[in-house]
Amino acid sequence: MPRYFTEEHEWIDVDGDTGTVGISDYAQGQLGDITYVDLPAEGAKFAKGDSACVVDSVKAASDVYAPVSGAITEVNSALADAPELVNTDAEEAGWLFRVTLADASELDDLMDEAAYAEFVKGL
Amino acid sequence: MVYQPVRSCVLSDSIPEDDDLPEVEVLTLPLDAWHRARGGRMVEFAGYWMPVQYEGIIAEHLWTRSHAGLFDVSHMGQLLVSGENLDAAVEAVLPIDLSTLKLGQVRYSLLLDENGGILDDLMVSRWPDQLYVVVNGATKWDDLAHLRMELPDDITLNHLEDRALLALQGPEAFAALEPLVSGEYPLSALTFMRFGKFTLAGAEVTISRSGYTGEDGFEISIPAENAEAVADLLCAQPQVKPIALGARDSLRLEAGLPLYGHDLSPETDPVSADLTFGINKRRRTEGGFPGATRIQGLLANGTPTRRVGLTLEGRMAAREGALVFSGDREVGRVCSGGFSPSLEHPIAMAYVDSALTAPGTVLEIDMRGKRLPAHVVPMPFVPHRYHR
Q: B1–A10: do the CB atoms touch at under 8 Å?
C-alpha cells in the first residue's frame, strides 16, 4: 500500500479509492504531548489543503490539513480516550481519519517516504 | 499540518526564515551547551536559545510537582540598584512600600506606566545598601531604559549580565539543596520570600525561597562561570531533573501566576489583573507612583473586567485570544490557556466582565467556532505549597 507525505507533515496510505491519514512521527515529536484530537465528522467533505482536524498538545493547537480532497468515511475513535496514541504510534495506531479520494491525481504532488525523510533532514 | 504555537516563538525553529526580515542574532545563555548535551530541544525565546522540553512537557511537569525540577531562567534580568536616598527614588517608580522591606526579604512589585498600565512584573530584594531586582527576560532592555530615564542620575543601575539564574522547584527542592549549601545560617532559616548568601559548588551564590510554579523552591543567582558546575551538582541529586520552558508555562498556569506579555501588558492594570497585592497598602493611600491617580480610582470604583480562572469541561483547550461568552454576549477574552497535566483537564485565565467573576459562574469559550463550556473557579487551580 503506497504511503505519501505532505510538506505539512501529514501522511496518507492509499488503498483503492480510500486514504488513511495521520501526522508523521516527526510532527508528533515537534508537537510534544498530545492531549486531545478534534476529529472531523463522518461525511464531512474537504478540499485538499483545508483544515480537517485539530491536534491539541500541551503547548499548542495545530491544524491537520486534508492531503487530498474527499469525504470523511471514518475517524479513529480510539483517540477519544487515548489521544496519546498519536505520540506513541503516529504512523500506525495513531491514524486520524479515512477519506474517499475525489481525485487520485492529487497524490502526484505528494512525497514518498524517502523524499519526506530527505525533506525532514533539511528542516 | 501547521504549527500554531501558543507562544509565537515556541516552535519558531520550524518556521522558514523570511529573507525580508532583518536578521536579529539569537543569543546564547551560559548553560546553552549543557541543555543541548542533555537533549533539550532549543527554541528562540526572549532573544535567547532556550530549551522548550527535554523528555516531554507532561513528564517534566509531573516530576516537578512530585520531586524537584531545575529551571534555567538566566534570560531574566538581574539588576542591582544603589545610591543616595535609594528607597525614595525607587518608591517614585514602583508602588512598593520599602519601609517594610527588611534586609533579606523579597517582594513582588510592578513596573507601571503613567497611566497605571503594566510594563513588567518583578521581584525586589533588600540587600545591604542595595536593592536586587529580577525582571522578565523579554522586557529587560525596555525596563532598563525606563528605569534609567525615571531614576535620578545619582542612582546606580547595575545590570548583572555576568550572572546566571537557576530555579529549583518542587516538594523535594529543600531536601536536594540543603546538603549542598553552606552559609552564615542554615538553608532552613529561609522561609518563603526570603533570601540569603550561601556557598554552592564552590561558588558564592544568593538564594531566595521563591519561584514560579506554586511549589516550595529556590531561585539561585550564580556567577555565569559556575553555572555548569552548579547545574551538574544539582542534577546529580536523585530528586532533581532539568525542566524546560514548556513545563514552566503549564506549572505557572496551574499556580494561577500571570505571564507578562500574555496575561499582563501596558493595556492591563493591576486592579483588573487581580494583582492589587503588588500595590502595597501605604502606597494605595499615599500614591506617588506612576499611574497612582488612575489606580486609586480603579481601587475605589472597580474595573470593567477582571482576570479570573476558568475550568473547562471536555478535553479541548482554550487558547490565548479566544473569546468568552455568556449566552450570546461576548464578555471576555482568554489570556492564557492549556491542558493542566496535574488536573488532567484544560484550564484558562481570562479577563471577564467583572459582574461575571463569582466562582461557579457558567460561561462559554469560543474555540474555532465551537463553544466550550467553562466555569469560573478560584485561583490557584492547584494549591500553592510555599514554605512560609
A: yes
- Chain B residues in contact with A7 by the CB 8 A cut-off are none
Question: Which residue from A36, A59, A65 is facing B1, i.e. has the nearest CB?
Answer: A65
Percent of chain B with pLDDT over 70: 94
The answer to whether the beta carbons of residues B262 and B75 sit under 8 Å apart is: no
pLDDT in tens, A48-95: 999 999 999 998 899 999 999 999 999 999 999 999 999 999 999 999
The full set of domain ranges for chain A reads: 3-102
The gap between the terminal CA atoms of chain B, to the nearest Å, is 47
B304-388: CATH, from 3.20.20.60, 3.40.50.300, 2.40.30.110, 3.40.1210.10: 2.40.30.110
Contacts of A32 in chain B (CB under 8 A): 53, 56-57, 246
Q: Which residue does chain B place closest to A5, by CA atoms?
A: B1
Q: Is residue B82 within 8 Å of B89, Cβ to Cβ?
A: no
- Establish whether the linkage from the previous residue to B380 is cis, with ω within 30° of 0: yes
Furthest-apart CA atoms within chain A: distance in Å? 37
Architecture of domain B12-73+162-254: 2-Layer Sandwich (3.30)
pTM score: 0.93
CATH entry 3.40.630.10 includes domain A3-102: no
**Nearest chain A residue (CA) to B370:** A38
Flag whether residue A40 sits within 8 Å of chain B, measured between CB atoms: no
Q: Which residues contact B263 (CB under 8 A, 6 or more apart)?
A: B273, B307, B335, B336, B349
> CA–CA separation, A14 vs A29, rounded Å?
24
Number of H helices, E strands in chain A: 3, 9
- CB distance B104 to B287 below 8 Å: no
First to last CA, chain A: 27
